[in-house]
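for ur thesis appendix - Bifunctional salicylyl-CoA 5-hydroxylase/oxidoreductase. copy paste whatever u need, i formatted it the way the template wanted (i think)
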Amino acid sequence: MTVPTKGTRGCVEFAATAAWARPAPTNPQPPNRTSHPLRVAIIGGGPGGLYAAALLKRLDPDREVTVWERNAPDDTFGFGVVLSDETLGGIEHADPVVYEALQNHFTRWDDIDIVHRSTRQTSGGHGFAALGRKRLLEILHARCRELGVELRFRTEAPYPALLAETYDLVIAADGVHSTTREAYTHVFRPHVAEHHCRYIWLAADFAFTSFRFEIAETEHGVMQLHGYPYADDASTVIVEMREEVWERAGFAELDEQESVERCAKIFAEALRGRPLKSNKSAWTTFRTVVNERWSHGNIVLLGDAAHTAHFSIGSGTKLAVEDALALAACLEEQPSLERALAAYEDERKPVVASTQRAARASLEWFENLGLHLDQPPRQFAFNLLTRSRRVTHDNLRLRDAGFTEAVERDFGCPPGTPPMFTPFRLRGLTLRNRVVVSPMDMYSATDGVPGDFHLVHLGARALGGAGLVMTEMVCVSPEGRITPGCTGLYTGRQADAWRRIVQFVHTQAPGTAIGVQLGHSGRKGSTKLMWEGIDEPLDDGNWPLVAPSPIPYKPYSQTPRELGRAQLTDIREQFTAAAWRAARAGFDLLELHCAHGYLLSGFLSPLTNRRTDAYGGSLEKRLRFPLEVFDAVRAVWPEERPMTVRISATDWAEGGTTGEDAVEIARAFAAHGADAIDVSTGQVVADEQPEFGRSYQTPYADRIRHTAGLPVIAVGAISSWDDVNSLILAGRTDLCALARPHLYDPHWTLHAAAEQGYDGPGVAWPAPYRAGSRRPQTGRTDAPKPRLTLGG
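the 3d part is after this line
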């Protein structure tokens, strides 16, 4: 696990003489020398810096490698660290001596215990290895000395600019508060985010038998304990809670010892009544560090100086050690220092970014722990175990089949039935499985009429096994189209064409439902087809745009006209007429599109709605017109058929819609009769800053589901059936909508059934396709070779 840094290990700027107090040069050292530097300076004597020193010295015994560490050899903060089998495998191949020393001191265990409301759930098969941080440093100190590395303890490193002039390579491993990074902030361009929880790093004088998560619901709010053994007689204990809980509990007024005693009392049962101990421990907030660049001339960042990952996934030390392995390998492989450092960044950045995404998901899950407290005990445990998206349903089933099967039974899965193939009911419609083909604009209509392409597109995906297939956004007027190629439901001819598609689905794919999404483009209309220039205005033939406020989407976009009251009435009637035609065409479900910056979404966001009348200002007023449209559509839509609403749960922009707003928006639509909320994000303003990643939008669905208490559809980079099973079984969503996977594979759901060996009522192979219901054999795949292998 990452250990919180106390102050800055490594370098400080001396001001005693002009030679030391010099500013950082623009380019500290032209990186045109060989990639086999003979003089290496390392700032910071943590695990990453020490391991890099040992590797570089072992690769070339003639190298001069010097490590500066401002603390004493036996000074350390925190208590235990966890290393994965993957990291240990890299160490074993690169330095068997270090690997053997680590093996001799590891404490190993397999179980995770989750204690919540006096109920303990245990999941096994996880394979952890930990040792004391002090012991780890001792092993690395000994190895460095054996190899001839010069270790300078209790010594501040010279300013990095001076080191860069006098050494071939400078490795800045000086922690989360890196002064090297700050000296060259204009080059590394760091982004440091602080989060909403306070935590303190402590220890107990006994060994837990598992990795233990314990939840305490106190009068001040929810608190959690993360504990794990790192020696036969010692465990790391981290106590964490949201900032407001920490303040209400009075921890801000307590000194170190009083905090330790209070924590021991709160978690007395987990600690068996034993005391906790500290080591200059203090409450802190976690800081996520991301750098755009990791190197500058002959200076390179490593470990927490370059990146951090929340301690709840135990990757800080792991990442630093893997950085050292990759850096050493790149220096051996590349012909110049410049190419070596570039290769190091290219190799490590994607790995680190993936880990940071998982760490952020884990961090945010614990920040919002209160959302999940009322879940059944086993589902709560499964939710916690899969919080980072790295442990999944399928992965957990391999680790602990008994636990996973028990969670499935509690959820209601019949034997042998994956969660995604359980039915779900919305009003009078029962979906046979939880997979939705998400709305995808095809831009292939003529005069708004869906043609043979749409029949094949939607028909193929209906035959592919999904429980619900959604149309693209179907526009309610010619002026409400996004492009000239968008479909509509504003003429009888269009309705007849849609009826043909609906009948095909109902006849050829019985059991598959088909839904229509109705919308109006608003200020994002009158643009080119996606592949001709997304969001670019037409070269000619533009139609006038309307919106809540006269704000263009992009600087070069057409400025829309602000809607007056009469026009609002006209548009509401257009939605009503389209809904009536959709009902006559036989659609099973209707979704109102209030997302992605289109007309109704434009009313909801404060960034696009600047009105001063009854339809602008507070969220309640911004909701008024979308709710009027919803009510009008619900009035003509058959009572037994469900209606959903797609929203953008965040604008990914300062001053825009927030997660809290999204909950209130969902509640408002639910109060008016919405059966589920389709939870998307963004695309409201052009300068948004989304945080992309696997399943990155699902936390918003999770929040709405548990706070507003209504069914949700999760969307956003859900790409595998394992993701779908995990999200549904954890209770984060009710349905999963997938877009691009269905473009890649129209029969995605059928193939998901085949790959899981499922053949039940949750999916049906069309008779002509049954011969393909078994997964074809594939060729052998081999695991990658170790990153760095050296002789014994």
